[in-house]
Amino acid sequence: MSDIRFRRATRSDVPAVVGLLADDRLGAQRESPDDLALYERAFTRVEQDPNQLLVVGDRDGRVLATAHLTFVPGLSRRGATRAIVEAVRVSGTERGSGLGTALMRWALDECRSRGCDLVQLTSDLSREDAHRFYRRLGFVQSHAGFKYQL
């Protein structure tokens, strides 16, 4: 994995990131890679917020992985800062190669460097392979998650 570089995403990465988000059973149902205008607007908001970090993993300029980190300062847990990791994706051609592990280890190191006390994530209930992956990394399935669609 030494040939992979993890870095903040740039505007030119948006099509590749959206492609990764759409490249699975669930993403294919909820993403629209043919209409990037919404994603471009969202990228602007992410880029302008210092508590947001959209990351890509690239090899020779080709985006092969992505994750979105959000840093949330708070009062609970004695004033802990939490990191939320979302939208973790690895290119289908790279799954099983160790790239996902490298991405998550990079993300955990980034969270530590920003003073986070806790890292949390959600994963769709149907993503059983992802759940095994996160457990192997040391994540504990400790809470029930809820969503409210607005």
UniProtKB/TrEMBL annotation:
PANTHER family: AMINOALKYLPHOSPHONATE N-ACETYLTRANSFERASE-RELATED (PTHR43877:SF2), AMINOALKYLPHOSPHONATE N-ACETYLTRANSFERASE-RELATED-RELATED (PTHR43877). Keywords: Acyltransferase, Transferase. This is GNAT family N-acetyltransferase. The keyword Acyltransferase applies. It comes from Kineosporia corallincola. Residues 4-150 form the N-acetyltransferase domain.
